[in-house]
Each structure stands twice: as structure tokens, then as C-alpha cells.
Amino acid sequence: MPEDGRLPGSAEDITGRSGRPPLLAFIADGESEAILREVLSEALPEGVVVRRGNIRAAIAALQKMPTPISLIVDVSGEDQPLTALGDLSDVVEPDVRVLVLGDLESVNFYRQVTRGLGVLEYLYKPLTRDMVARHFVPLLKQERRAQDLLQGGRVVTVSGARGGVGASSVAAHLAWHFGVAASRHTVLLDADLHLGTAALLLDAKTGSGLRTALEAPQRIDELFVERSAQPVGGRLAVLAGEEKLSEQPVYTEGAARQLVDALRRRYNFVVVDVRLAPLAFNRDLLELGHQRVLVLPPTLAGVRDTLRCLALPNGPLQPRRAVLVLNRLGAVGTLTRKQVEDALKLKVDVVIPDLPRQLGAAASMGEPMAAMRGAFRAGIIEIAREVAFVRVPEDEERQGRRRRRWFGARR
Fold it and tell me: Which of 42, 202, 327, 364 is 20 to 30 A from 220, alpha carbon to alpha carbon?
């Protein structure tokens, strides 16, 4: 492994050799293996081999086979992980591109393996699909990560596969989780200026700021954003409009990007409630997101429309497909989870059961806290982990130790 931290091996070097597997991974536990398989099979459909085993199994295997171009190893449970990585370097070719998984949550360890040993990236468990897609996939594909991924807040778009599936409720409560429960600076942007419900669900005020941003983007700056977004509680704000049905705001090309850029400079998370409609503003917002969330119902029509939605190309900052949230599972006359997954030929990422009384009461009162309990709360927390691996303090206590929180620039 190189000692300067650079990407080892040029394209000419890699294509000039034969007999080297493109990617080989050794993973110690089943949950991490399943996540890695799913994400890598989407991004790198050919030449991915994932085996069960730790770094010692990798060392034993690589003594008898050609060194792959890229290698993922798991140092979980190792008493001396740095020694094990040193032993690995003795049995592989020096230009191998190594990525490491482990259970050590230490800045010093991260620096030692990446800067000292030349490992491209290190991720600690538990893994999420978002972690693998954001930090491993660009390196394995040898793509330069866009500057937008490194600076500013993270943009998550939430859309329904069809109308009335509960996407706005998911978006509102996800934003509440980030801004209130996790205490991250968060804004919920409702893209529907006429019939949006984000402000109602959070008992927030609407204003003319969003319409002004779309019609006169030259006025957008941090002060404009600060005054237009209405505070809800904790560190959560809402940016929403309630325009007359007889009026149609004039959308200025590029306004969405200017608005999102300004929001990202102010907030850690920008949650966007946006319909999958052929409108310029909606289209641009979907393109600008870092991760899409697609909410679908357990119905045949929902499956059909989900497949159509998944066929839409990802935006330039989206390394993986949309996070699939199966909402209202168990409602009378609907499909089972297995039937939905068989029809999609995909596993759904998050399941939320049908809870009409609980969510209906919370929506009527405009009190998200009333809904954030039981299975619904668990589903929202799981979505948060999928799109941003954010934990709240009580989750950390349940794991027996506090998780370190990052701020500022994101890798």
C-alpha cells in the first residue's frame, strides 16, 4: 500500500494487466455483508466478489491468488488492527487500492490507516447504505467527488410514488427528527406553493419568501433565507408558501440552485418535500439532492409507479438509488411486504405500518411529537440513518457509548 495517501494505480496501469479481479471484499458479519453487496452491485454491477471473513481470512486467501485491483477488508475484533494491515501489505501488490471496515471509532486510528498506511478510506460499523455509497463507491469507481459533496449541508428529497401516500408526513417528521431530536440545524422546504402541507403538519407559518426566491433569485442570500424560513422549535425551520390557486409564480431558471446553495450554507440538513411532477422547479430540486427518498404504498398501482420513478436517472450528487419507504403496510385490502418486494424485484429499505389514528391526530394538532413514538418513530429513525447516519443521544445510550458528532465540512 502506498504511503502518500494518493489514489494508487492509473487507468493505464490497471487496464494494462490481466488476471486481476476488479474488486474483492472480506466482511466479518452478515449485516455489513448484505449492505455492501446491495450498494456495490448497484454501482459496480460487474466483477464484485464479497466473501465472509475478517482480515486474517483475506491475508490467507491473497497468499494464493492474484491481488485484486481494489480490496475491502474488515478489521473488526482485531486486537492489533494496524499490525494486521501491515501483514496484509506483505502479501498484496503495492498498487492495490485498499478500503477498510472496522469497529474502532477513533480519529487517531483513522489518521493512521489513511495517512500512514495509505488506505483510501475507513468506515466504522454499523454500516448504512448511505455511508458505503458516499464514501466507498466514488473511490472504487475512481471518480472525483464533487465539491458539493464536501461543503455545506446535506439535501434530502422526499417524494411519493403517487399522490396521497404520506410522503409529506414522512418529510415533516424526518425534518423534525433532524432539527429537534438530533439538534441539527435543519430546514424543511415544501416545493408545493399552492397545496403544500408541511407548514400545517409542523404548525408553522407560511410566507411569501419562497415565491420571491423563485421569481427573483438575485435577492437570495443568507439574510434572505434567515428571514424567510419560519422557526418551528429546536433547530428546525420551515420554508413554505400558500399562494392563491388562481396565481402561478413565474419560475426563473436556476432559482432552485441558488436557493438550495443558500440553504446549505445555513443549515446542516435541507429536507425537501417535492412531488415527482414534470415542473421545472421540482425537476431541479430532485437533481440537486444528495439522496432521494421514495415513499410508496402497498398497492399494485404503487408498485407500478415506483418502478417508473426508479427509472428516472439519478442526479449528479446521488451515488445510489432512492431509499424505498413502504408506508401504511397492513392497511385493509393492500399487498404484503413480500408481494411488494417480489413485484419490485427489490428489497424495500424501511417499512412503516398503517397508523391512521396516531398520525391523523398528530396532523390535526400540528404536533409531530405526538406521532413520534412506536413503529412510526422507529421508521423515521431508520430513514435518518439511511440518508445521513444521524443518531440521537438516546440511541447512543442504548448502544452503551456516546457517538462522536461531526460538524462543518463533510467528506
Answer: 202
